[in-house]
Amino acid sequence: xxxxxxxxxxxxxxxxxxxxxxxxxxxxxxxxxxxxxxxxxxxxxxxxxxxxxxxxxxxxxxxxxxxxxxxxxxxxxxxxxxxxxxxxxxxxxxxxxxxxxxxxxxxxxxxxxxxxxxxxxxxxxxxxxxxxxxxxxxxxxxxxx
Length: 145
Fold this sequence. Notes:
Radius of gyration: 14 Å
CATH superfamily: Electron Transport, Fmn-binding Protein, Chain A
Strand content: 25-35%
Distance between the termini: 45 Å
Number of strands: 7
CATH topology: Pnp Oxidase, Chain A
Shape: globular
Order of helices and strands: HEEEEHEEHHE
Number of domains: 1
CATH class: Mainly Beta
């Protein structure tokens, strides 16, 4: 059973994320969203997590809503090599990179900065911000295309 404080995270993890992942499978990603691929820290298998599109040139910014408690953050700590899938439909593409936690960054300010670049991204970020418990900024330095 979940405590009331855990309900938003559980709702996202068990209901929203599977729907968003299915949309990516069908090549119908939700505008403003991206897909993060990490390597499972125990299984070594690929893990896919829907995230807000944080692409900014050759850097991809993420704000972990649950901070270091998020499974994908634990995976990144074990293996910082990740991929992000951005764009929609046939234009979607994977970009590989190396992730690192940015302890001295203000996650709320990072979300405000990212939200300036479009309505759909802003909606994604506002939705995720509502579920922030202990947010943590993660920076992915993308490999050259």
